[in-house]
Amino acid sequence: MSFSVAVCNSPVFSPSSSLFCNKASNIYPAHETLTVSLSHLNPPASSPSAASPASPFCLRLQKPPPKLGFRSSSGPGGVLKRKRPTRLDIPVAPPVGIAAPMSDAAAVNTETPREEYYREVEREGDGYSVYCKRGRREAMEDRFSAITNLKGDPKQAIFGVYDGHGGSKAAEFAAKNLCNNILSEIVGERNESKIEEAVKRGYLTTDSEFLNEKDVKGGSCCVTAMISDGNLVVANAGDCRAVLSVGGFAEALTSDHRPSRDDERNRIESSGGYVDTFHSVWRVQGSLAVSRGIGDTHFKQWIIAEPETKIIRINSQHEFLILASDGLWDKVSNQEAVDIARPFCIGTDQKQKALLACKKLVDLSVSRGSLDDISVMLIPLGCFF
Fold this sequence. Notes:
Elements: E1 2-7, H1 18-21, E2 33-37, E3 58-62, E4 70-72, E5 80-82, E6 120-125, E7 128-133, E8 142-148, E9 157-165, H2 169-186, H3 192-211, E10 219-228, E11 231-237, E12 241-246, E13 249-252, H4 262-270, E14 275-278, E15 281-284, E16 294-295, E17 308-313, E18 318-324, H5 326-329, H6 334-345, H7 350-367, E19 374-380
Antiparallel strand pairs: 1-8, 2-3, 4-5, 6-7, 7-19, 8-9, 9-10, 10-11, 10-16, 11-17, 12-13, 12-18, 14-15, 18-19
């Protein structure tokens, strides 16, 4: 059995308008002033030298303090000059744009130096390919996991994609524990209803374990897919999505958990919460744009970890499965994703071509303006029949 876990990650600041509306008297101290005579505009009867500071034909300008780096030349008609500011030493950010090292045999060490700065992560494993690209955030918040060759059987595996928010801790925890918790609960189960209950317990157990961790923060959306005994068991909590290609036609196996869904909004409001829009996005308590997931301790009354599960029997018409975070689905439709990936995921050399398909899907989302982390996993199903 091989196991891998990989690391894959805005407030709007408006400066105070008072910075731009202060009067000149508030900018410089009033103890030094310059007097400029305007007598040439309307000469008084007496000598120009008789003009006083109180004259209506004089404009009193405040002299900038020396500490601001200004100096004036002496004599009439002096010109104010600005000194060149001191050079600032800006620290150089860690290098980005390289792929994180990974291993088939064991979980990636999450303490790898500067791992959080990796911009791209790609992976080709037994029966799957995955490509992740960091968005505008400083750290990658997406994660993925894969456990293949279950019980020594190459036709059994379980996969997951996790989209963190408020940090990467919840996604990282889910990537390390969720699939194992599902497997622990599902041992020996054959009945579909019992399998669904086992998957549910796996999600709830992972959520409970994470909330018991020290210094927990943030949450994670999750989508998992288990292939066992010819069955495909897909579950999700949040807006990571699973899409199946059935003879070239896209079939969504999950439904996004967002507060814009009527049933999710009713559930939240019936438990004392509220749903509102912010920047045209429906949000729970005016904050979270998803209504289910792992973590989110401060919203746990409304953000539940209970998944929705679907079980199907796979056959030759089921070509490949796409698991992806909303960084893809917000910009690329289900059918578009299948149409782009299908030429790469059927026929020979599926393993190498599937990774190219992942990259093409990510690049398409980026080209359409996605600023989010994007993770795409492709699972050709032919090897699991």
